[in-house]
Amino acid sequence: MNVRALLSIFRRKPPLLTLNEALSHLGALDQFIQFEIIEFEKKRLLVGNKSDVRELVYFSIANAIWSTKAMIMECPSVAKSITQVLTELRIYYECLWQLVLLNRFKLVKDRVDVASLYPWVQLGTIAVKNRMLSAAPDLRNFVEGPFGSLEQTHFLAAVHEYINGKRITPIPITGDMIRDNVETIVTRITLVCKIASLEQINAVRFVMNRETIVALDSALLNGFDVTAAASYKMPPEWLARG
Questions:
Q1: 49, HSE (Cβ side, Cα atoms, 13 Å)
Q2: pLDDT at 28
């Protein structure tokens, strides 16, 4: 797939944000998601759930926000394409948790269960997005795309790359899935943001290497046991509040 084809997935062009606006919006989302995670953990401790699909929802959303924020600090030119970057990172982290769980649980039944989680995670992500908009309706243009419903073709293309290792993004292949996935997301972000400077590309690569290592050590991911998950269905209050 050529560069034009890679960029064609971004049909909608959200309004450009200044650096300060981008950081302000990300700061608001960061505060929101951290509050949600704290409240979720409190409730989970009370009911004693060992694993809950919402861990995966928060894992993907939080890491997308945190990585975007870190990237802008190292490479401010990313700010002009922030909604596309958030979308790319959400998909990257959604594929990362699937890759980790598929490697952790080898039984066929467990791997089928891992595959069945994604529709519920997507539903949960939309529910969180709706609560974001209820809390801050002025951020609609900022969060609707990255945390709303994904185009099926966009997600399937990402699965082929990040989980199946079938690369359409032009990168040097090492055979190490995590390393190659990092290089893929770096390339996709630099294409989306039209970054040509080697210094800025290396800054994006530095951030994604660091952020991926941190994400792989996340309690939200490492504490999840697909064989002990309480339920794959979203709690009724999530749907009601959406």
A1: 19
A2: 92
At residue 117 the predicted structure's pLDDT band, cuts being 50, 70 and 90, is confident
Model confidence at 120, pLDDT cuts 50, 70, 90, reads: confident
pTM: 0.85
Structure tokens that stand for 4 in this block? 């034009």
